[in-house]
Amino acid sequence: MWLLAISLPLLPVIIVTVTRYWGGLGALYRHLLRVTPRLPWRRAVCARSVHGFVFQNCTHGRPESVLETFHLYARTHPSLSLGPERGELLDEVVRRVAPTWALELGTHCGYASVRILRLLPPTGRLLTVEHDATTADFGEEVILVAGFKHSQFQLLTCPSKDAIPRLRAHVGAELLQLVLMDHDAGQYLPDLLALEREGLIGPGCVLLFSDAHLPAARSLLEHVAGRPQRYAARRQVHGLLELQRHPLATPAPQSSAQDPSLSD
What we know:
The chain is of the alpha/beta class. It has twelve helices and seven strands.
């Protein structure tokens, strides 16, 4: 009773505070839902939980059902998936670019992979990279249960820094037209530079970076801002940044050891 008597006079203050800062509190909550699963000790738990929920509740062989099941899960659980808002931007980009080769760094549980694969042209293929073996297995099974085949995608289970030098063996003489980075924001700039050193980014290539508003991605933003002749920032929606390599920009020579950040 005494606790109730003390708290009652504070009730109007609490109501006013929550009302005034509701938008900020909601944004903080959504950010925590997004960031918390990225902690190493939460990744395996999150992947297993999402995988089980999607398998039990989706209609196998139907990509749209798989995506809707992801959305259903994310309403009440922390999730690593892009979500419907950023997913719609990804859809628009895939439709516009119609890539022959798309690269995803950070497979997680396969949500973005399914979004990309369902919109690729008949000749399009997806390379997706996940460094955690358990998460990679779950993600691959989700992609397969959505109805896609290994002839349409290739999953590399290794860190992005190890995967990028191996990509040429997959794409041959072709170039990437779409790149989605949704792994470690601190790795965005090193991976972008590695893709350039390997000569894999084609003129006009669209690059998407998830959670580009985080401090860890600041080095990427500074790098791009200092090279307007190379990249154009198109927009940022719900933390998903879209860049485009200028159509007249040429890929770095594959044999060059020069850091592309020093060539401008």
